[in-house]
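HOLO CASE FILE
Compound: magnesium ion
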Amino acid sequence: MSEEEKSKKVYKTIEDLPGIGPATAQKLRNLGFHTVEALATATIRELAPAGIGEKKASEIIFAARSSLTLSFIRADELLKMRQNVLRLTTGSKALDRLLDGGLETQAITEFYGEYGSGKSQLCHQLCVNVQLPPERGGLDGGALYIDTENTFRTERIVQMAKHLGLDPQEVVRNIIYAEAYTSDHQIFLLENSDEIIKENNIKLIVIDSLTAHFRSEYLGREMLAARQQKLNKHLHKLIRLARVFNAVAVVTNQVMAKPDVFFGDSVHPVGGHIVAHTSHTRVYLRKTSRGPVRIARLVSSPYLPEGEDVFKITENGIEDIAEDEKTGRR
Ligand code: GTP
Ligand code: MG
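Model generated. Tokens follow.
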């Protein structure tokens, strides 16, 4: 161990950080900063509502950063982070191939498509898969599920867990569930999730659906800018959590059946525009005339080429399609 490492302070709770007494700690918690990790990725301005001045805020953030193994400012550190990226299997080899090995940690993957296209089913499957060991494509971690449409089903998790030979009780226990009643509530839940993520070794954060509340609450053109701003901030929080905890972040977004028409119209609020982020992979899901078969199209990724492939939704969950099924023969 080097001298530098020996002298490095490790702060376990936010109270341990220099200049944070019980009252300030409480104010920070009220703002959603429960952990040293969260403070490490905070901005000076975000701490102002806790009555913390610029100088002190910068000291706190610096101390929080220095106590983490990963820092979030220098480019060489960024490279180091990149090397820590892990991948989570979807359950379909075809889909995993499309994503170059599965869903990445430290990034947001958005599944969008019309109703019944399989967005929520994929989210359920990922909640189970994340609990698998790495050699089976998992991350040995738990899942956090923020459900805005009340479509999460424990029974479905049990079904999928059994198929993978996992103990269903255990699998269900490792999923932390929260129903969001409004967009503000949804924002609040995520803002306050850092401690839960840390304590439960959460490696997958799901927001299903990301956009439904925003869409129904922010109606009309004049609300659009406000909506986008809120959504952006929400996504920003999500990416920071995904980075600091090396977790996979998944969001769903319902769009109408004709995405081309929809994407051509930049103001119409019915659709699912969310401002593209640099760490953001978008997968478009489509139903087919062949019952359980779905088409997944990788629409945009920071570095992967576009492409598409098929998978199916069965009793077992998300699965590959047998070769003879692909060609239409059965
Ligand atoms: P919205 O939330 O309405 O936008 O749709 P979604 O994209 O989330 O659709 P979801 O993931 O809920 O997919 C629903 C489809 O999955 C159903 O139409 C079924 O085809 C399939 N599905 C869901 N549960 C089961 C199940 O237990 N068994 C089987 N075989 N298929 C299922
Ligand atoms: Mg759904």
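CASE NOTES: The longest strand covers residues 280-287. Residues 33 and 39 are 6 Å apart (CA to CA).
CLOSED: yes
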